[in-house]
Design goal:
mainly beta; globular; 6-stranded parallel barrel; single chain
């Protein structure tokens, strides 16, 4: 069984804050080519679970949601200081996005240790590591290159820092990454080497349940990926763009001009059907 969780630019269980000066969301269709020109659309929706109450979406400092802001009937969307959103919608439903269960084909592997400040290339196959740390100074960056269709499980943390260190997905290749620890990606960050990268080719799953921190994204390059981290806080502090989608516990977008470009193709991208608690989705009512 499988399900399609990536139906918003951002989905959060509890809270979404977009407060970086002129940060924004919109959408495009990677099946029609690269983002830009006529391939820029207004489906950059953000959604907070229908059970969340109070001020659950906060838009500030000229933030622009080129899409809808969706909340529960007891949720509030705060729009101040020049911020804008296309529509505000309300729902009485609960979206029971399940926790991640690492496939046995990965969890049962023997660990290959840690990748620490080394250039490593992974070809098609399944891999397990304790942690990944790539840092750099000047031009001495280290790269984890994905040169095949790779399934990767990291039982500890992933830290990518420095100006020239990165995880690089080669042209036409794919990465399904499962991580137990926290995920900090900055510097050169997560790079997809192709003229029209596809977010669906890089999916990152987090098993972590630490809702006070989790995924920190501050890359100096554009990233094309989907993040499924239903119990983690997601922080975007960088100034470049994320093309794809995120599912998280809460999201904070603080980067000046930070952009999230939702790929409309993701509505039909399915992931493993993890153990579910419940999944009741009710229709929305629109307030202009």
């Amino acid at each position: 069984m499988s399900f399609a969780p990536f139906t918003n630019a951002i989905f959060a269980n509890k809270l979404i804050s977009v407060t970086g000066n002129s940060a924004y969301t919109d959408s495009y269709n990677s099946g029609a080519g690269a983002y830009g020109g006529a391939n820029i659309h207004s489906f950059g929706d953000i959604t907070v679970d229908g059970d969340a109450t109070g001020n659950v979406i906060n838009l500030d400092n000229n933030a622009d949601i080129n899409g809808d802001a969706n909340v529960g009937i007891d949720g509030t969307v705060v729009v101040i200081h020049g911020a804008s959103v296309n529509n505000i919608t309300y729902s009485s439903g609960h979206m029971g996005y399940p926790l991640v269960v690492v496939p046995a084909t990965l969890s049962n592997l023997a660990s290959s240790g840690s990748i620490t400040n080394a250039n490593v290339t992974l070809t098609t196959g399944s891999y397990k590591y304790d942690s990944i740390t790539l840092s750099s100074g000047g031009s001495s960056g280290k790269t984890l290159t994905i040169n095949g269709d790779v399934n990767l499980y990291v039982t500890g943390e992933i830290n990518i820092t420095g100006n020239t260190s990165s995880i690089t997905v080669a042209n036409g290749k794919s990465l399904s990454l499962y991580v137990d620890g926290l995920f900090n990606i900055s510097g050169a960050g997560l790079i997809n080497s192709t003229a029209n990268p596809l977010p669906s080719k890089t999916i990152i799953y987090s098993t972590n349940t630490n809702d006070t921190s989790g995924v920190k994204f501050g890359s100096t390059n554009n990233a094309y990926a989907c993040f499924y981290a239903p119990r983690l806080k997601f922080l975007i502090s960088g100034v470049k763009a994320l093309f794809g989608s995120m599912v998280c516990d809460s999201a904070s977008v603080t980067g000046v001009g930070a952009a999230i470009h939702y790929d409309e193709v993701l509505t039909s991208v399915f992931v493993p059907d993890f153990i579910r608690e419940y999944d009741t989705i009710m229709p929305f009512m629109i307030q202009g």
